[in-house]
Amino acid sequence: MNLTEMKAVLRRDLRDEDAGNYRWSDDELGRHIARAVREFSEQVPLEQKTTKATAAGSRELDISTVSDRVMVAAVEYPAGRFPPFFQQFSLWGDTLTLLGDEVPDGSDAVIYYGKLHTLDGEGSTIPSYLDDLVATGAAGYAAVAWAVYAVNRVNVGGGGTPEDLLAWGQRKLDYFLKELKRLGRRHRVRVSSLYNPYRAVVSKLTDGGP
User: Fold this and answer.
1) How far apart are CA 180 and CA 134, in angstroms?
2) 172/183 Cα distance (integer angstroms)
3) Same domain, yes or no: 185 and 137
4) Burial of 8 per CB tally in 10 Å (0-12, 13-18, 19+)
5) pTM score, whole prediction
6) In terms of residue numbers, what domain contains 31?
7) Distance CA 11, CA 22 (A)
């Protein structure tokens, strides 16, 4: 789904399909979609990895060029071992510090990280089965924002009052945030499982001989 298609979905959900009398402009819908995408990305970021050269004798890596970064899941160093060897690390701003016993010698490290999803005119990195969830969040943000603005203004009542729209939007947001929390828990478990640091297990039953 691209951005134009997402806006069309929102207008259907919001019952705002009269092109001559839109309640929300395209720019406004775009802002609400962007907010929903950011919220989604915080819980289920786009999984990426990049290779960075270390500096001999330094445990610090500058990752300021890793753009749109949401989180760092793991750091493989030295790169290329099998099974992969993952280091403990700390992150402060754009400086990643390796905390393992092995001091970098200038060879490569591989950084596994999550970044913001994109949703634009060309397409989307959001899994297609979750498009509706992002649309739900964007619709909720749009409805609440408009209703809060309009709630103290004169209206003629009926089913389309700001109070009704506010309640509808809040229900949408409640569902959206609840699902994000559930997906976030699943994502964290998956990351932990995939990138659990490898350590050789020494059997206590092995007889080393005399």
Assistant:
1) 10
2) 17
3) yes
4) middle
5) 0.82
6) 3-43+118-194
7) 9
